[in-house]
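in:
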């Protein structure tokens, strides 16, 4: 998640150690040693004592091997090795790690001049403000946190403070519970992962399948296919070639390595066809369906949710193709996205595992694999220039435009795009009010598109350039020219669950 902070380091250390023990065949026997190798008696110390540190670490380990928080490590490891995993929400709060941030939302600063106007006092509907020692004072027992005092102060002397996790969530899905610990409202949560990155205590984490996947790669009971999201370019080093990454994945134990950009070509052709049919049938507009967080947000707004494309995402399209070719195959999607984990949980017959680039980098480290030193190997199912461009904001709309131009020359595409949940939310609201002149809306929950996802390994600006380079290298320049994808597109106008 592009974190060089101590939170990111600890998270990766846990995943590396889990992977190392799995590949060494010692998970059951030595899982408890992680408590001593990651948190030592000598420090560094981030919490009150070593016992607190290890209590938090124990929860992290359980999450990494898909076991309930609070489980004894030896029992958890045995369950994992025996294939007994626990389904859990994608976004989870580690109770031992949450600092229960004791924040008063509105605070009077030293900038207060005890002015004659006393606009703050006059604006307060609960009479919660008075002057104490020549400065305004807010009585927290009366304050309802309406914010009128802050807006009325002409000096800007009253500031608003919010918890990092609450501030990061554009949808208000995280609040403080009765015990002041963070609580996730899963009806509002779209699993974007912003809160995971934002929490400075590492108290919020996304569900991980690193333990499950590495165990399957170790046991080799079924062939496991790796599917690389279009944003993979440059994630493991700007000089690392795709063929080197393919070789590293095969050395881990993957049977085949597939580019999801091919699935993006399938989706582009299917979505262009769906757009034409929708507009000709009198529908005002169509929105994209490749970003699961955006789709869930749109579905929370019934007036626009009915206009979300019914075409499956590139991940599901590519997974479908693999399963049709090999019914025994297990499919692992690898990308920068946390929300894909939620989408996969609803498509378990197609997608078996989802891990982020950060999680894959940890697995490589645990297995002792240096991607930059690998000899080139083959990668399957390359997509077109359009398919690779799905990784960047604006790429989907441009891909659909190219297909319409080639196959439906009479259709006029009035495309708009939004990236970042805040922008998506406001743009969808504008669309619902009829205030947006568009018949096609591309929505991406992460700023900049998938390249800005929370599970990325490099700066989005660098990633954008790497995706552009990879796109330029594509042998097929447009999804409309990808004949295999055109044929497959006829199968994948599959409706999302309402």
């Amino acid at each position: 998640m592009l974190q060089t902070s101590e939170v990111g380091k600890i998270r990766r250390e846990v995943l590396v150690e889990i992977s190392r023990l799995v590949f060494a065949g010692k998970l059951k026997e030595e899982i408890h040693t992680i408590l001593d190798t990651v948190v030592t008696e000598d420090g560094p110390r981030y919490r009150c004592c070593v016992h607190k540190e290890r209590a938090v670490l124990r929860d992290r380990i359980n999450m990494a091997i898909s076991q309930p928080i609070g489980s004894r490590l030896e029992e958890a490891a045995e369950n994992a090795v025996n294939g007994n995993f626990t389904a859990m929400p994608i976004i989870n709060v580690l109770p031992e790690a949450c600092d229960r941030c004791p924040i008063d939302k509105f605070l009077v600063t030293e900038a207060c001049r005890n002015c004659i106007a006393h606009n703050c006092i006059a604006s307060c509907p609960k009479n919660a403000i008075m002057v104490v020692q020549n400065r305004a004072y807010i009585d927290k027992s009366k304050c309802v946190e309406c914010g009128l005092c802050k807006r009325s102060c002409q000096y800007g002397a009253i500031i608003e403070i919010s918890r990092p996790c609450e501030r990061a969530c554009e949808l208000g899905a995280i609040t403080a519970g009765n015990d002041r610990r963070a609580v996730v409202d899963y009806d509002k949560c779209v699993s974007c992962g912003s809160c995971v990155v934002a929490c400075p205590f590492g108290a919020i984490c996304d569900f991980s399948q690193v333990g499950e996947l590495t165990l399957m790669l170790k046991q080799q009971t079924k062939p496991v296919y790796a599917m690389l999201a279009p944003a993979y370019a440059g994630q493991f080093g700007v000089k690392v070639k795709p063929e080197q990454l393919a070789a590293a994945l095969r050395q881990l134990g993957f049977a085949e390595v597939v580019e999801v950009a091919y699935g993006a070509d399938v989706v582009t052709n299917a979505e262009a066809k769906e757009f034409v049919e929708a507009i000709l049938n009198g529908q005002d507009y169509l929105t994209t369906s490749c970003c699961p967080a955006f789709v869930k947000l749109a579905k929370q707004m019934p007036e626009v949710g009915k206009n979300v494309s019914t075409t499956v995402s590139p991940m599901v399209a590519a997974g479908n193709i693999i399963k049709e070719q090999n019914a025994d195959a297990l499919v692992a999607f690898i990308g920068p996205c946390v929300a894909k984990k939620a989408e996969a949980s609803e498509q378990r017959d197609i997608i078996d595992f989802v891990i982020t680039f950060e999680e894959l980098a940890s697995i490589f480290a645990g297995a002792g694999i240096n991607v930059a030193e690998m000899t080139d190997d083959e990668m399957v199912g390359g997509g077109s220039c359009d398919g690779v461009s799905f990784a960047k904001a604006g790429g989907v709309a441009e891909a659909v435009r190219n297909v319409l131009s080639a196959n439906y020359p009479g259709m006029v595409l009035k495309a708009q795009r939004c990236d970042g949940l805040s922008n998506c939310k406001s743009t969808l609201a504008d669309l619902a009010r009829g205030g947006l002149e568009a018949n096609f809306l591309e929505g991406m929950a992460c700023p900049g598109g998938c390249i800005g996802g929370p599970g990325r390994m490099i700066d989005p600006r660098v990633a954008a350039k790497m995706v552009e380079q990879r796109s330029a290298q594509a042998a097929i320049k447009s999804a409309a020219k990808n004949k295999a994808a055109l044929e497959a597109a006829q199968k994948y106008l599959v409706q999302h669950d309402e």
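note: Residues 114 and 352 are 62 Å apart (CA to CA).
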